[in-house]
Amino acid sequence: MRPPDTANPRVQNMTDEAAGKIKPARPQLVLVVLLVMLVAVFLWSFTVGRYAVPLPDLLTVFFRKLFGLSATWSSTLETVLFNIRIPRIIVALIIGAALSASGAAYQGLFRNPMVSPDILGAAAGAGFGAAMAILYSAGSITIQLVAFICGILAVMTTYFVSRLISKGHNSVLVLVLTGMVVTSLFSAFISLAKYTADPNNKLPEITFWLLGGLASITAKNIKLILIPFIIGIIPMFLYRYKLNALSFGDEEAQALGVDTKKMRFIYIFSATLLTASSVATGGMIGWVGLVIPHLARMLVGPNYKYMLPASVMLGGAYLLLIDDLSRTLFMVEIPLSILTAIIGAPFFIYLLFKGRDSWV
Predict the structure, then answer these.
(1) pLDDT tens profile 126-137
(2) Helix orientation angle between 336-354 and 202-211, rounded to the nearest 10 degrees
(3) Distance from C-alpha of 92 to C-alpha of 71, rounded to nearest angstrom
(4) N or C: which end of the chain has fewer CB within 10 A?
(5) Helix segments in the chain, DSSP class H
(6) Confidence band, pLDDT 50/70/90 cuts, at residue 248
(7) The pTM is what?
């Protein structure tokens, strides 16, 4: 197998030509700036919240822990940092990166800038699994596992039903339409679960979970989301140059030697892992996978060699900032999907005006 980023110069040339007006002079420099921004947001997130942690104290704790020195801080500070802040911040970064990468992959795969990570039913399936688990009083880890499994099953249903309908051909339209049907079906199941739930106990819990939030995140959640994230993100990065070819259509991709069936399956599988694990951990958080890839495309161009890493870093930083706002704006914590919609919808309209000529 040839190295991913240099496998076919024609893919690179076609992508560069299609980038047109928005091709940045130095996308590598933009990636470095995004990395610095991500680190800055990561460190700043430790310092905000009900229990303020000054940055010098934070660096002191990390330094002394790293070199095994004796503790000079209170037990309260250690509890806040290691039991609450660190798990929550890491999970927010992973979810933001996962949803952004999935959205970027699907937008290229389906050649549609309006596509989001829940296009094939992963979010609705995971939401249904979580609602049923909550309905039967399952623990938090069980809820996450059931939601993840149901998200995978929903996308598998979409994929295999579309294959049967299209009789084995690569019909993107049939796949998208089947995904819409499966999403509607699982959304109806979610409504049924909410309708039959106890209105004084289970219904508020299901509703709050579906709105998205990271208030109950612990170190165990990191382990459960990190494994599918690694499994899903690695193939995306290894084969991202082939996504450049797929974004021009199946005929052009096949002419360049790309196995479209194989690549489509790999990307759907990877994006499903990322989306299902994110929804299973943090609830149904919208707009991240739709808005962030557009912003990344405007910053570094449509070449997935740069656009996918940019989406990952932007998505992680964005959701981390949203989570910081959710726990500091008011006395009560605001569900993440409310803030992502309030911020994402107007910003998306702006991006449509600003980058309407940038889509490949």
Answers:
(1) 999 999 999 998
(2) 30
(3) 28
(4) N
(5) 9-19, 27-47, 55-66, 75-79, 86-109, 122-135, 140-166, 172-196, 202-211, 219-238, 240-246, 250-255, 260-282, 288-300, 304-326, 336-354
(6) confident
(7) 0.87
